UniProtKB/TrEMBL annotation:
GO terms assigned for molecular function: hydrolase activity, acting on glycosyl bonds
Biased composition (Low complexity): 11-29
Name this protein carries in UniProt: beta-N-acetylhexosaminidase
SUPFAM superfamilies: (Trans)glycosidases
Length: 403
């Protein structure tokens, strides 16, 4: 599988010459680069693109072997991988080198940098939680600033996707897992600020992940340890949970993350949303018209595996409409299970190709093919720069005076 690293998708330049009148009328248009690339990929390479596991250590050596062996589509960083800005940038470059070595498909390198209580980078410029930002005197400015600075610092160390912002409407004060990660309990305000955050992140070049569809805000159960049931009718879901995700679609969120929750009002089968074709393909793709990447929440969570084992959960998520599988409990077994499901026809070739096309389209659109590497020597000059520190102080002062 070969592809040019400089190839990018997009409309033809306005200055491009018009097609010659002598050109044959039946000439086929040049296919989008992701479509052409999918046709060249082997089944094993396609299956690998679906996976985004954790990685060991803080140097490229061990993780690079995983990237090459499984043709991974992405990886996710946690604090164990992150020591200093330069080290993180060098890790990112080493992993991208491994990904580009044979197939030429760059990695999505992600992390959960929501700020507030969910922050992975030990050295990042700090901002308050979303609920705090939303409560200040100038919430739009504060949310925009926090997203911009966070995105710029992630890009500097080679992280090209942030699993943020949280798009849940937190209407349950006993919610053990969302809480201040949400912008609040007002659906319209949350929707508005989700749009502000997405626009700001995307402007930095970082891919954006709105989460957790179809809405994790009204639960007293943590999906890390159990399987929450949210008894919202379809009408209540439309009124309470849907607005931020509609905003995410309208603002071109690159990725939407699924929730390991059961919402009987949306799917009478009582399947977790991550494994529900009704929710992912019917509601998110069909009703909301979302065309980006759908990624599962961590498949290590109890909510993902309490009804099915880890291997079955991965297969069911892809069948339901998920494009990427985040943090499988056992990468090798999950990969082999999905590969076997493709070979048996349980996961159709068209479903696999559709998933990989979504992933590659995002990688082209966000410039991952064009610029997979970063300047490691400059990373420490971006992280915690004077301008970023001043911006953080301004936001902190604003939320103190307005909260």
């Amino acid at each position: 599988m070969a592809v040019s690293a400089c190839q990018e998708s997009g409309a033809r330049s306005a200055t491009s010459p018009a097609r010659s009148s002598s050109a044959p009328a039946s000439a086929s248009p040049t296919p989008a680069p992701e479509v052409a690339l999918v046709k060249k990929m082997s089944v094993r390479e396609k299956v690998g693109q679906l996976f985004m596991p954790t990685i060991p250590g803080s140097t490229p050596a061990q993780a690079a072997a995983l990237v090459e062996r499984y043709h991974l589509g992405g990886v996710i960083y946690f604090p164990v991988n992150l020591r200093t800005p330069r080290q993180t940038a060098e890790l990112s470059n080493g992993l991208q080198k491994a990904a580009m070595k044979h197939g030429g498909v760059p990695l999505v390198i992600s992390t959960d940098e929501e700020q507030g209580p969910v922050s992975r980078l030990p050295y990042i410029t700090r901002f308050p939680a979303n609920k705090t930002l939303a409560s200040g005197r100038h919430p739009d400015d504060d949310v925009r600033t926090a997203a911009r600075v966070t995105g710029e610092e992630l890009r500097a160390v080679g992280i090209n996707q942030d699993n943020a912002p949280d798009a849940d409407v937190n209407i349950n004060p006993n919610n053990p897992v969302i809480g201040v990660r949400s912008f609040g309990a007002d659906p319209e305000k949350v929707a508005h600020l989700v749009g502000v955050a997405i626009d700001a992140y995307r402007a930095t070049g970082v891919a954006v992940v709105a989460k957790h569809f179809p809405g994790h805000g009204d639960t007293a159960t943590d999906s890390h340890t159990g399987l929450p049931i949210i008894n919202h009718s379809k009408a209540k879901w439309e009124r309470v949970d849907a607005p931020p995700f509609k905003a995410a679609v309208e603002h071109h969120a690159d990725v939407i993350m699924t929730a390991h929750i059961v919402v009987p009002g949306l799917d009478k089968s009582r399947l977790p949303a991550t494994m529900s074709k009704t929710v992912l393909t019917g509601l998110l793709r069909g009703t909301l018209g979302y065309q980006g990447v759908i990624i599962t929440d961590s498949l290590q969570m109890a909510g993902a595996t309490i009804k099915f084992g880890p291997k079955e959960a991965a297969v069911r998520a892809v069948v339901a409409g998920a494009d990427m599988l985040l943090m499988p409990r056992d990468l090798g077994r999950a990969y082999n299970a999905v590969l076997a499901a493709v070979k048996s026809g349980r996961i159709s070739q068209s479903r696999l190709d559709d998933a990989v096309t979504h992933i590659l389209h995002m990688k082209y659109e966000r410039g991952m093919f064009r610029s997979p590497y970063v300047d490691a020597a400059k990373a420490s000059h971006v992280i915690g720069s004077k301008e970023h520190r001043e911006a953080a102080r301004k936001v902190a002062a604003d939320v103190r005076s307005g909260g």
